[in-house]
Design goal:
single chain, 515 residues, alpha+beta, Nucleotidyltransferase, domain 5, 7-stranded mixed beta sheet, 6-stranded mixed beta sheet, 24 strands, 39% helix
């Protein structure tokens, strides 16, 4: 088979292992589902050891299915979701369940930080906003509510770094994960002791992981990990990068005029800033990009996962459609048939939380609304939600001025949906070749660390490509954009109505509740 590399991508629902040759061709891919628990309202947790077993199973499966000789694997690297929290004792074992970055238990604490001015005070120190699933906020919550966990903790870890620790014993991190955690002075490249001092959280400082390059060998596969995965003992393990960075790299984002948009579980818009981090309009999160410069990220849970819910809950489970293909083929064909047409129907993709508490909904329909127009509204509403995030990302005098969007995620699999993104956002959309972009991006780190490429930039040029391009159709875009102000006004009105009619939460509920 020849030389190859493995990339691991630990996401919100699945842990995936993919084997690539040095030209970036995917030779095999295996997926294992992560078990997520919700022990209290607003809490989202995961058993770290179960996640490791899922990763080990995926690695073993990809080696078995590909028939690859483990000796041909030059290196392996891991990517994972940013922020969240994994706390380990001196032996490297979890002292509590891992916390996923969609967790909302810190809402009450963040309200305090907003009220006493701490949130505004620390934002310039870490060059980003504070949000509920951020590691910084979660550490503050643990310190207040689980002091015994603080006492037992020896190392703070992030998702990808916990898995790499199981592979090779190394628990360092890279600048992308540290940056998106809210613990780093992103511009200086060191932990922000001043932020921890302001928040009274200095006790965590000695527990923060050492920092290193994303494309650097951090260790080698141990005998125990080799036995579980089928990897050769001693295989280099490269540090890796957070999933947002990995997706941008796999999308060939190397210059400020290229914007990375992920339209999957989350809406994620990332812009590259070469001279300094973006600070005039503070982004949701920000980190040093492995190729140089800083990646500024704006996002929300308003993307293609909302379509998945519509399909599974309203269509597939109800037996509403009988087709020879998949339900997604039917929906895609329905939207394609009415592209560029107007519909009064509007979909608000806030099933997993909306701005200022705005509820999800499909409104504006009448008895004459067709299935095609209803599905058009679903596609359009999700693009509108992306537009809101992208408009925030492009706000301020130091905002990027992208000329093209590189799009990945479930929505990019649909040609007509990709075209709609181009029409509404007013920029050409290019869809990269491949499917497992988080795994591919971190596999580029593996290939560079192993010496197969002289630099990450060379790895990107050698392992990534563009599959198709969608130009802007201004006439179709005008139909959608004429509706956008009404969409925003109704979104805000619904958020206000929900807030005005929501019963007051008890103190215990306010600490954990989220939209």
């Amino acid at each position: 088979m020849g030389d190859c590399v493995i990339g691991i991508d630990a996401g919100g629902t699945m842990t995936k292992a993919a084997l690539f040759d040095l030209a970036g061709r995917e030779l095999a891919c295996a997926r294992s589902r992560n078990v997520t628990t919700f022990p209290q309202l607003g809490w989202t947790e995961r058993d770290p050891d179960a996640m490791w077993r899922a990763a080990a199973q995926a690695i073993a499966q990809v080696l078995a299915e590909s028939g690859a000789d483990p000796a041909d694997v030059l290196a392996i690297s891991v990517s994972g979701y940013g922020s969240g929290l994994y706390l380990l004792d001196r032996a490297g074992n979890p002292v509590r369940p891992g916390i996923v970055s969609t967790d909302g238990r810190t809402m009450g604490l963040l309200a305090e930080w907003e009220g006493d001015g701490h949130a505004a005070e620390i934002a310039p120190l870490i060059q980003q906003s504070v949000w509920p699933g951020m590691s910084l906020a979660l550490l503050g919550w643990v310190q207040r509510h689980e002091p015994e966990v603080l006492e037992r903790t020896h190392r703070v870890a992030f998702c990808k770094d916990f898995l790499r620790g199981r592979l090779c014993g190394d628990l360092s991190t890279d600048f992308t994960d540290a940056g998106s955690s809210g613990l780093l002075d992103v511009s200086a490249g060191r932990y922000s002791e001043e932020t921890l001092r302001i928040l009274g959280m200095q006790a965590w400082l000695p527990m923060l992981p050492e920092l290193g390059r994303s494309d650097e060998i951090a260790g080698h596969v141990t005998a125990e990990a080799a036995a579980l995965t089928g990897l050769r003992q001693g295989t280099p393990v490269v540090r890796g990068t957070v999933d947002m960075s990995a997706s941008a790299m796999a999308s060939m984002v190397t210059r400020p005029e290229q914007m990375s948009v992920v339209a999957g579980t989350f809406s994620i818009a990332s812009t590259l800033h070469q001279d300094r981090p973006k600070t005039d309009a503070m982004p949701m999160l920000q980190f040093a990009y492995p190729l140089g410069g800083w990646l500024s990220v704006q996002g929300s849970a308003t993307s293609a996962s909302n379509l998945e819910w519509v399909v599974k809950t309203l269509l597939q489970h109800g037996g509403a459609l009988e087709t020879g293909g998949t339900i997604y083929d039917t929906v895609n064909a329905a939207v394609q048939s009415v592209m560029g047409q107007h519909t009064n129907a509007m979909f608000f993709p806030y099933l997993f939380g909306g701005p200022e508490g705005a509820p999800a909904g499909l409104v504006g329909m009448t008895a004459r609304t067709s299935f095609e127009k209803a599905m058009l509204a679903v596609f359009e509403g999700i693009v509108f939600a992306h537009k809101a995030d992208i408009d925030k990302a492009l706000t301020g005098p130091d905002a990027a001025t992208p000329q093209v969007i590189r799009m990945t995620g479930g929505a990019s699999n649909s040609a007509c949906w990709s075209e709609m993104f181009a029409d509404i956002l007013g920029l050409p959309v290019e869809v990269p070749a491949g499917s497992e972009f988080g795994a591919l991006g971190t596999a580029m780190c593996a290939a560079t660390g192993a010496g197969a490429y002289a630099s990450l930039d060379a790895a990107i040029q050698g392992m990534a490509g563009i599959a198709r391009r969608h130009e802007v159709n201004a006439d179709r875009g005008a139909v959608h954009l004429a509706k956008y102000p009404r969409y925003c006004a109704l979104r805000d009105a619904m958020a206000g109505a929900m807030l005005a009619t929501q019963p007051a939460a008890a103190p215990a509920q306010r600490e954990t509740a989220h939209a």
